[in-house]
Amino acid sequence: MAGSEQSPKIMACDFEINGNLQKEAFELFALAQAKLLGLRGYIMQVTEEKFKGQLQGEGKVIEAFENLIKSAAEYVAAIKEFIIKNLKIIEEYTYEVFEIKKKA
């Protein structure tokens, strides 16, 4: 029976979070949640009220990350929207871990 089980597909997506969020605290929170879930990718603050990034992992795990971010008590009022774009299946991970990227 070995090999008959198909492993879950790896998904990748871009995400955007808009809101009035404290940069360091929010980035560290997102980093901790992503690592707990086993997601890979990055988050980066692009403007005062916007974070962007990429997630790589199983579809249900990406969904869990979105739900965790939206339901975190200290951020519920601050988050205006969480947008997932370009969701697609990928063959393999392109990120080793989930990280915080600095603006260039």
Automatic annotation (TrEMBL):
Its EC number is 3.6.1.7. It comes from the Eukaryota. One of its GO terms (molecular function) is acylphosphatase activity. Keywords: Hydrolase. It catalyses: an acyl phosphate + H2O = a carboxylate + phosphate + H(+). InterPro entries: Acylphosphatase, Acylphosphatase-like_dom, Acylphosphatase-like_dom_sf. Residues 12-102 form the Acylphosphatase-like domain. PROSITE patterns: ACYLPHOSPHATASE_3 (PS51160). PANTHER family: ACYLPHOSPHATASE, ACYLPHOSPHATASE-RELATED. This is acylphosphatase. It comes from Drosophila mojavensis.
